[in-house]
Amino acid sequence: MSAAPVVLSAPTETGWQRFRRDRTPVFALWFLVGVAALCFSSPLLTALHLLPDYKAQDLALGPVAPGAAHWLGTDLLGRDLLARLLQGGVISISVGLIATAVALLVGVVYGVVAAEVGGRFEDLAMRAVDIISTLPLTLIVILCTVVFGQNIWMIFLAVGGVSWLTMARIVSTKTRSLKNRQFVEAAVSLGQSRTGVVLRHYLPNLSGTIAVYATLTVPGVMLLEAFVSFLGLGVKAPMTSWGMMIKEGSDVMEQCPWLLVIPSVVFALTLLSLSYLGDGLRDAFDPRTAKK
Amino acid sequence: MFLYVLKRLAEMIPVLLVVVVATFFLAHAVPGGPFDKERPMPAEVKKQVEAYYGLDQPLHVQLGSYIGNLAHGSLGPSMKYPGWTVNQIIGERIPVSVILGSVALLIAILVGIPIGVVAASKPNTWMDRVPMGFALVGICIPSFVFGPLLALVFSLQLGWFPPCGWGTLPHLVLPALALGLITAAPLARLTRGELMEVYTLDYVRTARAKGVSPWRVRFVHALRNGILPVVTYLGPAAAALVSGSFVVESLFDIPGVGRLFVTAIVNRDVPVILGTTLLYAVALLCLNLVADLAKAALDPRTARDRR
Hints:
By secondary structure, chain A is an all-alpha fold. Chain A is 72% helix and 0% strand. In chain A, helix 4 packs parallel to helix 7, helix 10 (194-230) runs parallel beside helix 11 and helix 11 (242-251) runs antiparallel to helix 12. The longest helix of chain A is centred in the middle third of the chain and has 37 residues, at 81-117. In chain B, helix 7 crosses helix 9. At the A-B interface, helix 5, helix 6, helix 8, helix 10 and helix 11 of A face helix 1, helix 5, helix 6, helix 7 and helix 8 of B.
């Protein structure tokens, strides 16, 4: 259907080799690695006096637009925006990584197993997902905060608790549709074990959906973190995160537009790279697209 | 089919019971009560009030009487708004959230899915990049930024729609757009990803070869197979939309369920927390059932082997 350029690929070519041939996803991967490296090295940069301290206030200075002294400007309390952006990145990137890991490990396994076992087990498993997704997350987070005190781990717990639910639902639907396909029937009749069917037939055919949905989870949970923090339960000031910076920036978008625009652009660029990376992985590992 | 629906409806009862019991204990485990204020009530008064609401009883007795009332369709009295029952408070707000949510859902479907279909038809060209760029903006912009931006442009600058409030049709436009477009973005991405796969299947080529027009192939033949994950995603998304969004309702000052839920948590108004949670649970279960039925109709292979 599509007028994709005909690329000959050797039968022995692996998914990674195909992945590396396409430039956009590779560039996206390097961009993400770069941003993450910069964010996670920010305490070191501050220690070396290459970067101002993210919590150092300068109330006399107040908010200034981007310039030579502060490359990305300062916030309402005169704190350097670049330093805060890098510190916030540590939180947001960690939240994104945890969510993706939980969605992939718990969500995919849960969905595939539920659909493969089928019958009453699947009914029970799916109703359990319903129950968990209905319980008020805010109450749970408040309760955990009371029991364990306010700390960053609460956010990871909240994010991990919800990020796998829709993934499990989507994966189980798709698996159920694959289950009745002829090639799966053929594999079973040729003596393929259940594990074999899951690993060799389900997962490769699910990979596209999983990759796309995994990249959709990340922005959602990064914003969820902002909401949880907004309720005063997550990241504590003076620490920050991208979601919180965008939230604070949106309150003063008419007076100090850079406080909204800069974090939003960084946030968007990161997610853009992430979705190109997801699409690239999808294209490289999808058994059908790969054959072309 | 009818039996299957009945079975699923019957299954809802134990699920809802578990949700009620769990939320009940959660809400009571959280410290602070509805009558704790900055200026404490005299101890005797507080005791009286708590006795009135049955808060002096052991928890399991409270739970029992709550479930008993629930069986009669009563959600109990509100603790923060004296003289109001939870049925009245929620009943007043349901139409608001349902209308807003349904319009937003319609916008999301009508915008998101066609964008995905168009983008997947010419991958990696401008017809793919431009709509997907917009979708990405929609995914990245949180509603607390998108809402004020809409209000700023279409209300304060252009003066087309009122910036906040509820009641008339123009009031509906901005919040519905804010909710709908943000939901449309992930739909577009999911649709595109699925259709890219479906377009490579043999039956799509056959349809083209026998002379079906390209757009009919994309929207009728291919979409039917590619839309499964989208429908799955729509179940919970629709439930979230019709049971109200805290952020958008607060931004546009709309008296909906989403705001009620969050204020109830802040106020520790346990009956209202339980009522709104139950409402969301019913919406989620029903819409997931609708999604499952739609999937079975679209792709009979997903239908459960019904013994």
